[in-house]
Structures are given as C-alpha cells and as structure tokens.
Predict the 3D structure of the following.
Amino acid sequence: MTISESSSTAEHKEKQEEDLACPICLSDAHEVSDAVVFCQSPCGHIFCVPCLEHFLLKPKLDDDYRQSQGMMDNEDDYYYRRRPNTGSCPLCRQTVNLFDLINIKDRLPIYSKNSSIKTWPICDKKYSKQPIRLSLPSTEEELLNRLTEKEGAISGYGLEFDFSSSNPGIRLLSDEMLVTASSEATNDRGSSSNQNNMKPLEFQPWNNFHFFAKTMTFQGNIHFPSFVTRLSGRDYRYDQLECLLQFSENGHFVRDGYLRWKLQSTAAAKAASKDHQSSSSSTTTLEEEEHFPLDGTWQVMWTSGQSIKIHVQRHCFDCFQEWYKIELDENHRPRFPWPSEYGQGVVQTSNQSLPPGDGQQGPAVGETFEWKTNSDMPAYRTIVWKRMGTAADLSDDAWKLIRLQPDHFVFKRILAAAGGGGESGGDDNDSASALTRPTYHSDRLWGNTFCQAFCVGLASYHFVGPNSETGALEAYISYEHPRTSSWPPLDNGSAVPSRVPFRNTSYDSETRTFRGDICWMEVYGTRWQGEAKWSYEIRFDPLFFFVEGGTCRMTVGRPDHQFGVDLVYVNAAIEDPLRVSMRNDDGPNCESASRETKTMISHLMMNLLQNAESSLFDFNL
C-alpha cells in the first residue's frame, strides 16, 4: 500500500467515526448516552442496537399470508431471510444474524452464546411430536404412526429432543437411521472393530450448542461419522445435522425452527455403500451401485415458469417434500414414477442414454437435460434440468431443510405421567372487548361471523338472521378491513363496497347449508373482475366452528372455488370455546375439516397454549 493509499484509508475511517449515526432513528453515536450501544453488521453498516434488534426480531410474514399474496417461498429464502434471529440488513439487504453483530467500541460480539444448559428454561425437558387434538385421539395416533413410518426422523417424525443437563442430544424412536457401529457414533454404549457394521441410531449427543433466552432459541449441530437412512426404499447418506428450535415463551412447545441435514459427497457415499455392500449378502453388483450419472445439483424448470433447486445423491432426490428414485432401464435411459397424488401412473422419462464409462456421466455444469412425462397437466409434460453442480459439489452446498412448524402435530414438552395437572387457558376476554367482537353461537348459524386469514373484514361472512319485518335471511360479505384497499376496484373504477349483501338467500338447518348470491351487476350496475354474479353454497360443521365445505360458483367459466381448499374460513369467535375445550382436555372435533382448515385451527390452539393475552384475530375494531 502506498503512502497516499494509507492516508486515504485513514481519512475514510476517521470520517466514518465522525459520521456514526443510526440510519433508522438517526441517533448520533457521539451524543446518545453510553447505555445505547452501537453495533456493526457483517456487511459493514452501523446501527444502534435497539433499532437493529427491533428490525431483526419483528415477526416475519407467516407462510399463509405470503402464499395468499403470491410470494414464492423456498428453503434459501427462509434460511437466509426469515429464520429466527436472522433477517436482512435494512440498507443493503444482505443476511444478518444477531450473533454476527459487533460492538463498535470494543469489537466484541453484542450477543453471547449461552452453552450452560442448567441456566436454560428448557433444561432437563424433553420434546416429541404430539397431536394438537384436531380430531379423535385414535385417529391422530394412527396418522402420526403412518407419518413416522413414511416420512421418518429426517422430516421430524419419530424424533425426540432431550435437553438433559448431563447429556443433551436427539433420540430416535425408530430404526430407520443407521450409523457406523463405532464408539463415537454409539455414544460409548458399545463398539465394534468392523467399521462396515451398521447399527440403528438410538441417541446422538449435540457436538456444539447454545441457547438465546431473548428469542427462546436453541441451536446445535451433530457430526456423524457415517449415517444412512433406510426408509421406504430410500438410501440417502448424511454426515451432519444442523438444528434450530424456537420455543414458545413458556417453553411448552416449538413454534418455529428447522432440521437441516447435510448430504455426504457422492464419492464418500459410494465408498460407504461399497464397504456396506461388501459385508452384505445383496446380489447387486458394486459396478451397478457406483453408476449414478445424474448425481449432483440441478435447477428443475417447468414450462409454467416455476423452478426449484434439487440435490441428487445416488439417484435419489427430494422435491417439494416428496422423495424420488431414478432408475436406468435396459438401455440406460433414466426414468422415475411420480407420487399417486400427482396423477395415477405418471412417469418421468428421458430418451438420453447414460451407459457406464468415461464421457457418459450426464450433462456438464451449465448444460441441460430434457425429460418428458405422461401427465394430464400440459405445464408438466416437458421438464428441463440444468446442472448447477457435479456429484463432487454435493459436499459443499447440499443441505435438506425441514421446517418445524405447528400444523396437525407439534413438538410439545413431554409431561410426567403422574400428577402435573393441566395448564390454565388464561383469563377470559374482558367484557368491554367482548361487546364489540364477534360472538359465538354453537346451536345456530345466525349471529356468527366467519373469516379467512384470521382477519375480520377481509371478505368475511356475517350472518345477521331473519329480518324482523320481511323475514328475509340477511347476510353480507365485509370488505371493511384496510388490507382490501389494495384490491382491484369494480370494473367501472369505483371502490369495492364495504358491505356487499347476499341475495336469494336460503338456509337448510338439517344439513347446515347456506345458499345465496352476490349480485354485482344487479346491485351495483357493474361487474367485478369480469364477474356479474357469485353463487354460494356454504356448509358448516355441527358446532359452527368452521366452514366444512361448499363452493363459490363463478359466471364466466372459471373453476368453482372450493371451501376448505381455496376458501378457508373459521368462526371469528372460536377462541372462547377453544379455551373451554382445552381446559377440559377434550379438544374440538375437527374430523370433517380439510387439512388447510385444521392447520388454521392449530395456529389458534398454539396461541392459546402460550396463554396469550391478545387474540390471534384481527377484528378490525
């Protein structure tokens, strides 16, 4: 470095120190009290800690809302932008983690990583996947067993987190995972001189771990000497697990987090497979086992414009939480079947032959590979893979991330079998707020309000009842919430009315089915998004907790909207009866609810488990 360059650098640094001010609140680092600490992010930007902490720790957009707004999500977006303790720099949008922040005065980390387990609020507690009581206990237990058998511990089923103060780790409740039988892998419960001998993984201690009380997050990782899953015909090999768990404020359950499994490089996986093959009685030859020309990282592209990154190891890969296994036919052409839920008998094939031998190891990095399918959906009949990395690259960036969020099941604290008693459901809503909020009626439709996305006024349904003078059944759709202001106007340019009445209404009390029309042209003299009328048929569950089924029929040839799938609605006053049922430990019967509806109700129950003072609903009051 020249003298002039050195002088320039010193002047730049001096100017930076003179201009130290938080770009969010504009506080000057030289003028505020010593109690306000300033920090520097990895990208070099400086903020006061309260501002950046508020920015990073504020609630992220939930997945349901992101999907409703057409915001595509993927593993990288969650991991680098929305996981707990992590966000984007307010200035340059680079990834920032709380533990990467440095005090500008002493250059020490702002936040320390607490590895002293005995000081943790979750010390000596265990957590396993348990149902949230959305249906009958026997049904939930059967479903949990099926998912454990199908998805396994890789997806969080059959897995237990043990935060014992003496030996914290994970415990496997099934024998799907196999590790090399060495003293390191078996936690000193036995060893074997035969390194090829694989045994079920029962317990594995964390190698590195810490807890952050401010956000109730645990983070740890485990390194495996050799680790293979044997589940539903899959053979996938990993060598590391990274785990992050964010607990509820009272530590009763895991509210967010992930399991992130690191795949072995294909070379290491082949070597391990060869060692295991040589000690087994399988008739498959090693030459066949070692020929995986499509191993590596690929970008999968559909004609619809959708794309996703996948990692292929030993011709197995995961795509949208489904597992696939590529086979080579007698002419060495690859093919694999799709799961039945994507169509019966759908097979993805390629005409390109990939025989063993040099120069026949599939496309190079940057090249593409075309597939054809017999799917009924035109957008999926031609699929293109673009190679992003070779088999050797798998050791660098091939991670399988599994989100851990409450749905039908949740990681809950394992309680002692005896004594204990239940937990309080919290105080009832105060009488003042109860007067202005929707009310719940279990024996009739009238008087109830049903909403989507926990938001009253976001196209919520309000069932008023028979008119005292005319006897007409009155009900309306409310568009009174501010979020509807971003929706398109009526086709004549006018704003969408705040309340749109149902016409031609009827109600069958035996089947709990309401019918009615929203008559845009008849009432307002214009259409909305080309529609003159919507015709509704809405069926409710016996206790009026949620919309059980039905359709909204359009008039311009568009597909009907299905309740429970496209339109997911629950009673806006459901929290009070849920509190009562949870206190009695009997839970609501949601057998007839769709998967999407059960997920919505499970979010409500998780909120109640925290004894939250505020409602999960936005009542637009």
About this structure: The radius of gyration is 29 Å. Residues 540 and 547 are 5 Å apart (CA to CA). The mean pLDDT is 79.
